[in-house]
Amino acid sequence: MFQFIESIKIEDQEIFLLELHQKRVNQTFAHFGKEGSIDLEKIFKNLNHDEDGLYKLKITYDLDKRFRTMMIPYAIPEIHDFQLVENNSYDYSFKFEDRKELEKMKMMAKAEEIIIVKNNHITDTSFSNLLFLKGKEWFTPSTYLLNGVQRQNLLKKKKIKEMEITLQNIKEFSHFQLINALNDFDDTFIYPIHKINNLPGNNDYLDY
């Protein structure tokens, strides 16, 4: 049975981006031909979470509407280096719990985090969508693996734009940042592009 996951931001007892999370869960059930869904808001309320601070609510569920929850204190990670890793066949269009292929790519890499390249195009890291800075504007790759809720939220608010980002134009950007349900847009928490240790033109490009 397929197992899926939602990771939801809970801060000071408030749930964030609920509508987008619920939409994704509903679309997952519908895609696999199942009627109905699970109610994320009801699940959260039944937890009676009364702690302030930043938490990740992790909900793992299957298509029979069985689920389990974990409430985990969360801190935004600071990553020291990144590596481009090529994988032209990887598909993560649904938020599967099974991350074996992602972990395998990370184990093969020589950096703390990977940026997956698919058919010459920049996609995502192993746990987030990406934003790239050119001048004063932020762009997200149009070739994402998973259309994350924070990505959708920022596009809707017109804080970012979509753009085709490839191995040919990635060096046109000066900085990048990671976004997901727990990591908001934050232009003070960004990485210079040279934190990617095997940019095209470097001696160790895609040497892994």
Extended strand count: 12
How are helices and strands ordered from N to C? EEHHEEEHEEEEHEEE
Helical proportion, percent range: 10-25%
Arithmetic mean of pLDDT: 94
Q: What would you call the structural class?
A: alpha+beta
Largest sheet: 5 strands, mixed
Strand proportion, as a percent range, falls in 25-35%
Q: Please give the radius of gyration in angstroms.
A: 18 Å
Q: In angstroms, what separates the terminal alpha carbons?
A: 34 Å
Enumerate the strands of the largest sheet in spatial order, edge to edge or round the barrel: 10-9-8-11-12
Poorly predicted spans: none
Q: How many helices does DSSP assign?
A: 4
Shape type: globular
